[in-house]
Amino acid sequence: MELELIINIMYATLKTGTPLILIALGEMVCEKSGVLNLGQEGMLLVGAVTGFIVAAVTDNYFFAVFCAIFAGMLMSLLFGYLSITLAANQVATGLALTIFGAGLSAFLGANYVGIGLEGISTIHIPFLSDLPVIGKVLFQHDPLVYLTLVLFAVIYWVFKATRVGLKIRAVGENPEAANAIGINVHQVRFMAVLFGGAMTGLAGAYLSLVYTPMWSDGMSAGRGWIALALVVFASWKAERILLGAYLFGFASIMHLVLQGTRFEVPPNIMAMLPYVATIIVLVWLSSDAVKTKMSAPKSIGQPYRPMI
Hints:
By secondary structure, the protein is an all-alpha fold. Helices cover 72% and strands 0% of the residues. The protein is built from 14 helices and no strands. The radius of gyration is 20 Å and the shape is globular.
């Protein structure tokens, strides 16, 4: 395999894995607080269409990214009100949010289908971008790729070395005990859900403004669901989410690369490879149910009703 092709594959892997990292890290924070949000796919689509419409109307990409984040937070606020304040079933609420988000995004973006944008351009870092091999792989990306890595580092540090991370884990493990020592369980969970919505909205902006700077109905292509599986695959650890997202990105890119070779395999079969890989990983994880159960937050998916 030629060196240039290998460089391009590595470069594309980082770009493809970026939205998955954002969604999965946000969902990890939610789940560590004890909230299971299955509405990621819907929030992702709403964030993507919001960012695209704002960029198309204003030609201001910074404002478009901000609006996409805000849209994701609004969607998560709706989920939080239903699942935390009203203590509704989290699984049913999340599925309803996905269906609602898919329909809302299709309605809002109906007049923008097929319209292309210039998109957020890459950054040229003096000297570093011109380095052979690693110059393109690491130092010729758009700002959102680097922001994603910064967010990963912050989240990793928060859960490793701060009281905030300890509070979130305490609420996720035993909300009654956390409440007994003075932690506001509902407040912590709301903040975690809002953060998850912001991360998913940012991922949506990345899809419609960077990865494929256009809008098409259902452009998320199941990334919200893949990110949910990725959190379990990573055992709720940020560093494993980073690795898993890039592995999925690599699988996604390789199916395109293999189509350009002499492999006489139908393209639809090749497109299935990343998702087949996800299923295989989940089956492998399910074989050790005890380990998975030990890793998961103990109160995940369970509504908390404070004693009066």
